[in-house]
Amino acid sequence: MTPSVPNTSIQVRNLSYNFADGAVGLTDVSFDLPSGSRTLLIGAIGLQLFANDPTPADIHNTANGAGKSTLLRVLSGKRLAPHGTVQIGGVDPFTTGLESVTYLGVEWVLNPIVHTDIDVPTLLASVGGDAYPDRRDQLIQILDIDLNWHMHAVSDGERRRVQLAMGLLRPWTLLLLDEITMDLDLLSRSEFLGFLKRETEERECTIVYATHILDNLSRWPTHLVHMHLGRVIDWGPVEKFQVGRLASPSEDSRLGEVVLEWLKRDLRERGPRPGLPGEGKKIAVEF
């Protein structure tokens, strides 16, 4: 039996990762995140915001971005990291299997079962809903899920709500989120982020969340990590960047200003995209 994570601190030291074709994914990445932290992973370019659910080919084509998706996959154990470069709760996850690490990323939304003619109660029961009835009911309420929905006949936003409930039914100690809330409306997203914040406060669990949507997030993160072209440019507690966690409308503006300045600098360093105007058919902006 694999051990549960004793704590959920994350330590990354001099992590580099290359893809099978030789493309560079990560270069000399180092940072520390304490147990119980909520981290926003910020970086431009990379994950495309597709009009519909992405295909496996789409996912492969997003590998040359800021490195956020690659980093999350490494932390989740989906990509093998060199020995000693990653520790979760003081344990090397690649030599000692860990329980209670949940990764919800772009690949996860491709699960074909969520497009079939199956009702929500049956789907949730299939992933442990009956084992965690209180947690199941809480997620249904928070995400405003209709138990009469059939998955083949719902909108992308409704489908994403059910997928989030599926992924979070079983208690986790480390949660890695990769742009998974972009289909939620403002209210559902606010309720969902409130639920995640309470989880970290009540269960001493840790979250790393890559997102381009910063509205109403100033009081949510405890830490920021800025990535660009596979490198970590800066990281630390939000106070380091003069972004507080107080109930002040100006704090949202301050967080947005910090991130916008990072992205402008990144885009200047990267330079113009290759190819002629109009060649791309997908929006390829990620903040």
Automatic annotation (TrEMBL):
Membrane-spanning ranges: none
Xref: Gene3D superfamilies: P-loop containing nucleotide triphosphate hydrolases (3.40.50.300)
Classification via InterPro entries: ABC_transporter-like_ATP-bd (IPR003439), P-loop_NTPase (IPR027417)
Domain annotation ABC transporter: ranges: 10-254
Sample GO molecular function, one term: ATP hydrolysis activity
UniProt keyword annotations, A-Z: ATP-binding, Nucleotide-binding
Name of protein: CCR4-Not complex subunit Caf16
Species this protein is from: Ajellomyces capsulatus
